[in-house]
Amino acid sequence: MATRDNKIFVMFLQKALEKILSDREIRKNYNAEIKDECEKKLKTLKEVSKAPKSKDGSHHLPEAGVILADDYFKPFQLACQSRSPRIVSTALDCLQKLIAYGQLTGDSSDPENPNKKLIDTVIETICDAFHGVNTDPDVELQIIKALLTAVTSQTCEVHEMALLTAIRCCYNINLFTKNSVNSATAKATLTQMLSVCFSLMEHNSAHLLKKAAPEIVKTSAEGTPSKEGSMVNGHQDDASSVKSREEDKTRDDVPQPTQPGENKSGAADKSSSDDEVYRISRSLVEGIMEAALKEVKCEDGMLKADDSMFNVTQPGEDAQPGEDAQSERSDANCSESVQSEKMDDGQSVRSEKADGSTEKDGSTAETTETADNEQRNANHNAAQKKSVKFDNVYMRDAYLVLRTLCKMTMQPMPEGPIDPRSHEMRSKMLALQLLLSVMQNHAGPVMKTHKTFAQLIKQFLCVALSKNGVSTDPSVFEISLSIFLILISNFKYHLKMQIEVFFKDIFLSVLENPSYSFQHKWFVMRALAKVCADPQIIVDIYLNYDCDMVLDNIFERLVNDISRIAQGNLADHGLTPQQETQLQHKGMECLVSILKCLVEWSKDMYSRPHQRAEEKKTVPDTDIKDTSTLEERLLDTPDTPRSIPRSTSMSSLASAGLYDNPQEFENIKKQKSILEQGIEKFNKKPKKGIAFLQEAGLIGSNTEDVARFFHTDERLSKTMIGEVLGDESENCKKIMSDYVDQLDFHDMAIVTALRTFLAGYRLPGEAQKIDRLMLKFAQRYYENNPELAEIFASADTCYVLAYSIIMLTTDLHNDQVRNKITKPDYIKMNRGINDSGDLPPDYLMAIYDEISANEIKMKYDKGELTRVNAARGANESLKRQLYKEAMTDLSKNALVMMEGVSKKDTVFTSASHSYHVRPMLMLTWTPFLAVFSITLQDCSDVELIAQCLAGFKCAVRVACIFKASLVRSAYIQSLARFTMLNVSSGFSEIKPKNLEAIKALITIAFNDCNYLEESWYDILKVISQLELAQLIGTGVKTKFLEKETMMDKKLVTSLQQTLGTSANQNVIVAVDRIFTGSDRLDGSAIVSFTDALCKISCEELNNPVSPRMFSLQKIVEISYYNMGRIRIEWSKIWHVIGDHFNKVGCSPNEEIAAFAVDSLRQLSMKFLEKGELPNFRFQKDFLRPFETIMKNNENNLIRDMVVRCIAQMVNSQARNIRSGWNNIFSVFHMAAADRDQAIVELAFQTTASIFEQYFSVIGDSFQDAVKCLSEFACNAAFPDTSMEAIRYIRRCANYVAENPEQFAGDENNLENVWVKGWFPVLFELSCIISRCKLDVRTRALTVMFEIMKHHGKEYKVSWWRDLFNIVFRIFDHMKLTELTPEQYRIQRKEWMTTTCNHALYAVVDVFTQHFSILAELLVELLNLIQWCVKQDNEQLAKSGMNCLENLVMGAGQSFREVDWDLIIDTITDVYASTLPADMRIWKPTLDTSFDQVSMHSDTSMEPDNTQLAVSRADKYLFQHLDIGCVVHAEIVQTIDNIIFFPASSAKEDAQIDPYYISEGSEHEGMFNFLTTKQLFRIVECLFESHKFSKGFNMDIDQRRILWKYGFKGRTLPDLQKQETASLLCSLRILHKIYSDMTRVDEWPKTEIYLHRLTVESFEYYTMLEEDKRRLSWGKIVMLMLKKMMLLDDDRFVVLLAKCYNQICHILAQENERGLQIVLSKFFLRARNPLFKTIS
C-alpha cells in the first residue's frame, strides 16, 4: 500500500512541476532559476520513483502521511516569486492542494533558516505573492485559497507570526484588490480564520475551566443565551467542528479541502464548499455591530509581518519572530510569561498607487503628538511591560489576533472630511467588523472568564472603542456601539469602570449634546433599546453604579435622558420633525422596555389571581364574537422580555466572591443620596456643603480629609474648590496647604506639574488668592524635586516661573492678544528670576514650545460642551468650530478615562434579588409618569399611545408588587384622567386614545386586581362613568337620566358612535368580567374592591341631580359571587357592604332605600339557606343592616318593609336561624316602640309566633327576646299589647324554671341559668317598672315579685344579690331622671307614693320570707330602707320605718348579734340624718322671692297674729323639717314596737291609769334578743331625741318665729309627742333591764341612767307652767312612780333617796287627780322601806 501511495505522490509532483515548466513564461531569463530548480526536482522524482501512470493518464490522490512534500517546496517557493501570474497561480494552486492533501505539513525546519519552521516560510511565500493593487485577480484568489487551507488544515499548524501574516495578507487583499469578488472572499476567509483560531482556543483550553472554576464554565456557557428577546443575538460557535476534524485524523480516506473558488476570473462558478464558506463568512460579518478607540500607524494602509503590533516577545529579548515562534511551539501547552512590546506610534504604512509604485502618503504622514498624548502613551507603554501568561499556543494565537485587531482599529484618520472609500477608513471598518465577529460569535467560556483576555479587553479593546465611539463617522460609531453591547452582555463582570465611561462620557453625552447628528443619536437609541430590554443588565446597572458612592448614577441619568427624548424635547437639536418622531418612538420603546424589565425581574414576587371563577364559568358565544381576541388584547399581562437566567448571575457572583445584599446596597444608596445633597450644597455654598457632609459623617472633621475629598470627587464644582482654596480664612488656608501637600510632583517637569496642579480646580479671579496658591505650588514642587536645585536657586524661582508660564499661556492662546510673545522675548522676560541669575535658555525654550503646542486649559464644571450650548444662537460656522473642538476634547477625555480605568480591578456585583426593583421604581417613577402623561395628552400617534399604555400597565404592576401605594395611585389616577370619564366637568368627546386608556385600565383591573387596594376607587369610578356614557350613547333614557342637564346633541351622537361599535361592546363585556371574576380576588383585595365600590355607590346615590344605582346593583352581584368564600373573608367583605347598606337603607330617597332593603332580603335569604354552625356569629353580622335601617330611617314604608322582610325570614328560615335571632329581636324591639299600629302589630304577631312555635330554637337570643317583649310592654300607645307582652315575660320565667338545662349549657354550669335565664326576665321587668305607666308597672311589679316568691327557693345567694341589684334599680328611677325641678317633684311624689311604696313592702316581704338565704344582703336592704326614709316624702318615710319594723318582727328571731348591730346602726343613722336641727337655728332670710300664701291666724294666742310671707327655699325647708319631725316620731314608735311589740306598749301605757290593775304576764317583744349594750345604744338615741325635742319645746321665741312664717300651721310648732314618747320608751327599756335578772351585771349602769333620768324628769315637771305640757308630763311622772313602786325595797330605797326632794316638790304643787292617787300609793309603798331604814 505504501508503494502505491508513493507512486501517486510522485505522479502528482511530477505533473505539478511539468505544468510549471510547460508555461511559456518559464523560458524568460528572470524565470531561469525557477526552471532549473523545477527540472532538478523533476529529475529527482523520476529517479526515485518509476511507478507507471494509470490507464486513464490521471494521477491518483495520494493518501496522507506516506511521503511528505516538504523537500520539494523550493521550486514552488521560487515560482511564487515569479513575475508571471500564471506561474504564480499554478504554484499557489499546487501548494494549496499539497497542504490540503496533507503532503505538505511544514513541521520540519526551514533548510535556509534552521530557527524557523518550514510552515512559516510557506505562509510567507504565499503572502509575498500579493503585491498590492496590481496583483492578478487569479493570484489573489489562489492566495486566499492557500492561506485558508493552511490555517484550517488538520495536518499542519499555523501559529503566531505565521497566523498573523496570513491574516494580514487576507486583510490587505480585502482592502486593495480591485476585484469585488476577491474582496468579499478575503473578508469571508478572514472571518473563517478567526473562527478556527478562537474555536481551537476554546476547545483546547476548556480543561482549564474545569480545573479552576467549574461555576464559571456554567456561567459562561449559559451567560448569553441566543434566544429571542436577548440583548445580543449571536451564533453559538462551539468547538464541535474542531473536534470533528480531530476525529477525522484517524480516518483512512483523504479529507477534502475547503476552497474559496476555482474560477480564474474570480466571478463565475464556485464549488459547493466555496459557496458555503462565502455564505457563512458573510453571515458572520454582516449581522454584527461596531466598536472604537486607540491608534496605530501603518504604511500605505498595508500591514507588515514584522510590525510590532504582531509581536509578543519574551522579557528582556528583542523581537525575533522566528526564535520566539520556535520556542513557543516547543512547549505549546506550557504556561509561559511573555511581555508585549510597546506600540510604535511612528510606524510607517505604505500605500501603492495604481501603477504599482510605492510612495509616501502625505495624508498619513506622522504628526506631532501633544504633551498629554506623549505622557499618556508613556504610561500606557510602561503598563504593557507587565507579564502575560498563556496556557497553550492556541490561547497565544487568539490573544495576538485580538490585540492586533484592536490596534488596527486605532489607526489615525487623515485630516479633513472622512472618505468612506479611503484605505484608512476601509481598514478601520474591516478591523471593527472582524472584532465584532469575534466578540459576537467566538467569545466562548474561556475568553469570557480568563484573566488574560479580560485584561486584553480592558487595555486594548475598550481603549479602541473609546476612540471610535466618538467618531463622527456613523458607520464606525454604529459598529462601536454593537461591540459595546456585546461587552456589556458578556464581559460586564470585568468591565465595571469601562462601562461607566462608555455610558457617562460617550453614549449619554451624544444624547445630551444637541450638536450630534441624528444618525449618532439614532444609533445610540437603538443600542439603548437593546440594553433596556435585558432585565439583568438594567438591574446590574442600577446596582453597580447608582448604588456606588463614587460612580455616576448611570441608571437615573439614562432614564432622565431617554425621558427627555421620549417627550420630544428636541427643538434645539436641529432635527427634522420626522427625525424627532423616530427618536421619540425609540425613546418610548426604551422606557417601556425598562419597565418591562422591572416587571420581569420582580415576577417571582407577583402572583396572578387564581382562576377558580374562570374554571367554573364560561362566556356565552352570544355575548361577544371575538372573546379570545378580547382576552388577548385586554386581559393578558404586558409582554415582558426574557431575562438572563438567575443561575448565571449567581454563579458569576460566587466566582467574584461578592453576594447581592439588598439591605447593604440600599444603605449605600441612601448614603450616596446624602453625599449628592452635600455636593449640591457645596456647589452653591462651599462652607455649608462641607459642614453638611461632616455632620453626616461622610468626610472627616480635619482639613486633611476635606482636601482629600477635593481630590477624589469629580462632582465638586472646580470653581467652588478654587474659592475655598483661595479663601483667606485660617481653616481654608490649612485646607489649601493640605490639598497641595497631597499632590505628588516627583520627577515631573514644571509644566506637567502645573497642569496637574490646575487640573483639580479653577483659579479664582483675585490676584491675592492666585498668589497664595502659586506660592504653595512652588514650595511643594521644590520640595518634591530636590534634584532641580542645580537649575532652581530657591522655591522663589519656581514661584516666578509658574506665574510666567500662566502668562505665557494667556499670551499665546488668547485671540485678543495680537502681538504674540516670541521665544527671545520670553527668555528676556525671565531674566534674573533665579536669585538674580538666569535659567538655561534651552529649558525656557522647551517650556515655550510645550505651551505653544499644548495650551494649559482650565476644567469647566459642566464639561467643554457647555460652550456649544452657549453658542446655539451664533452662526453656523461658529457652531461647527465649537462642535469640532468639543468633539476633540470629548475624544481625548474619553480616551484618558478609559486608559485610566483599564488598570483598575473592580468587583461587579450581579443582581439576584427582586427587592432592588423597588428603589429603582421610586427613583424613576416621576419621569416615567411625566413622559407617559404628556404623550397621552398631546399625541395622537397610535404607536406612541400603545407604548404609553403599556408603560402604564408595567409601572402599575411593579408598584403593586412592592406595595408602593403612592406610585400606584399616581399612575392609575393619571390613566383614569385620560379616559375622559373621570372628570368633574362632565362628559366630553371620547377619542380613540381615550378608549385605549379605558381598555388599559380594565386590563390593569383584571390582571393586577389583588394589588390595587385603594386604587380600585379610581378604576371603578371610570367604570361607573363608562356605564353612564353607554346609557347616553345607546339612547337609553331612564328616569335618572331624564333629570340630567341637556347635553349637546353632537356629544350624544359622538358617544353613540364611539361606544356603539362591536369592538367597544367588548370593553363592556370585559368590565362585567371584572365583577363576575371578583371571586378571583384574595381576601384583602376583595375587601379593598368592595370598599371602593361602596364609595362609588355613595357618590352615585348622593348625586342631587341624577342618582344612579349601577354600583349598588354591582355590590349585590359581587355579594352573590363571593358568598362561597370562607367565613373569615366573607365577614370582612360584609363589614364593608353592611355599612354601605346601612347608609343606603337610610336614604331619604324611598326607591333607593326600598331597593337596598329588598337586596338585603334576597341576600339574607340566600345566606340563611346555608345555615350556621353553633358558636358562630356571622348571621348576626349579616342581618345587622336591618337594625340600622330600622333605627335610622323614619320612613314608615321602609320600616314596614324591614319588618315584613324579617317576618318572611322567620316564617321561611326559622329552623336555619342561629345567631340571627339577635338581629331579628333587635328589629322587633325597635318596631315595638313605633307609633304605627300596623308595624307594631306585625312585629308583635311575629314575635308571638316565635314564642309559640320556635321558642326552643332561639338559644342564646333569649335575652334579646325578653328585651323585645319588654319594649312592647313599654309602648304606652298600645296597652293591650303591653299587658300581653308581660304575660309572655311571665311565660319566659316559667320556661326557665322548667328547662334550666337549656341555659346551663354543655358544661352544666348553673350560673348560666341565672345569667341567661332568670336575670334577663327580672331585669326587663324592672325596666318595665321604671318606664311604664302606673297600671303597667304595677302589673310588672306584681309579676316580678310573684316570680321571686314562687321560684326564690331555687336561687343562690349570688343570684339574690344580683336580683336585689335589679330590684334596687326600681328605687333608682327617680334618682336618675332628668326633668325640670317642678316635673321632677310631681313625678317623684307620685312615684314614691305608689311604686316605691309597693315595691318596698314587697321587697321586705320577700326578704323576710327567704331570710335564711338572704341574710348576707341585710346591709343592702337596710340601706334601701334608710334611703327611702331619707326622702322628702312623708308617706315613703313612714313606709320605710314600717318596713323596718316588719323586717324585724318577721325575721328578728333569726338575727345574729351583728344583724342587730346593723339594725341599730340604721336607726341611729336615720335619726342623725333626718334630725330637724334647723328648727333650732332657722332665721328668716332676706330673699325677696316669696310665695305670698294666705296663712290662717290663731287669735287666741297672739294679739298680732298676721303671718309673714316665706321664700321658696324656706318653704321647701319647712317641708323637709316637717317630714323630719314625722320621721322622728316614727323612729321612736318603731323602736318601741320592735322592743316591746305594739300590744305590750299599749298595755304599759294603760298602766299609767291609777286605777289599772295588772293581771298576767306580758309579751316582751324583741327585748330578749338584744344585748344590754345594744339597748343602751337605743336608749342613747332616745335620750338625744328627747333632749332635742325638749330643747325645742322650751325655746318659745324660736317656735314663735317659725309659726310667724307659716311652719306647722295655725298653732305654735312643738315636739311634744317626740319629747314624751322618747322618754317613755327610754324608761321602759331601762326599767326592763333593771328588772331583768339575767342582766344583773348591767344594773349599776342602769341605775345611773335611771337616777339621772328620774331626777331630771321630776325637776323639769316641777318647772312646767303650761297646762298642756304638764298634762303630758304628768303621765310620765306617774309611769316613773309606778315603775319605782315595782322595784324591790333595796333598789326602791336607793332610787327614792336620789329623787325624794323632787317628789316632795311635785307633791307640793297642784296636780291632777290621777297623779295625786299615784303619789299617795307611792308614799304608801315607801312607808315600809323607809321605816326599816330609820329603825
List the helices and strands and how they pair.
Blueprint: H1 2-21, H2 32-48, H3 73-80, H4 85-100, E1 109-110, E2 113-117, H5 118-128, H6 137-152, H7 160-176, H8 180-212, H9 214-222, H10 240-248, H11 272-286, E3 312-313, H12 321-330, E4 336-340, E5 351-352, E6 358-359, H13 371-383, E7 387-390, H14 393-408, H15 423-441, H16 445-449, H17 451-468, H18 474-490, H19 496-512, H20 518-532, H21 535-546, H22 554-566, H23 577-601, H24 612-616, H25 627-635, H26 646-656, H27 662-684, H28 686-695, H29 703-712, H30 718-726, H31 730-741, H32 750-759, H33 767-784, H34 795-813, H35 823-829, H36 841-853, H37 866-870, H38 876-901, H39 917-938, H40 942-961, H41 965-978, H42 992-1007, H43 1016-1033, H44 1049-1059, H45 1062-1076, H46 1083-1101, H47 1110-1121, H48 1127-1145, H49 1150-1168, H50 1178-1192, H51 1196-1213, H52 1220-1232, H53 1237-1253, H54 1262-1274, H55 1279-1298, H56 1301-1304, H57 1310-1331, H58 1334-1351, H59 1357-1376, H60 1381-1409, H61 1411-1414, H62 1418-1430, H63 1434-1451, H64 1457-1474, H65 1478-1481, E8 1490-1491, E9 1510-1511, H66 1512-1550, H67 1572-1594, H68 1596-1604, H69 1616-1635, H70 1643-1663, H71 1667-1685, ...
List keywords for this structure.
1735 residues, mainly alpha, 3-stranded antiparallel sheet, two-stranded antiparallel ribbon, 73 helices, 66% helix, 1% strand
Characterization of the model:
By secondary structure, the protein is an all-alpha fold. Helices cover 66% and strands 1% of the residues. The protein has 73 helices and nine strands. The strands form four sheets. It has a three-stranded antiparallel sheet with strand order 3-4-7, covered by helices on one side. A two-stranded antiparallel sheet has the order 1-2. A hairpin with a 5-residue loop joins strand 5 and strand 6. Helix 39 (917-938) packs parallel to helix 41, helix 48 packs parallel to helix 50 (1178-1192) and helix 52 (1220-1232) runs antiparallel to helix 53 (1237-1253). The longest helix has 39 residues, at 1512-1550. The termini are far apart.
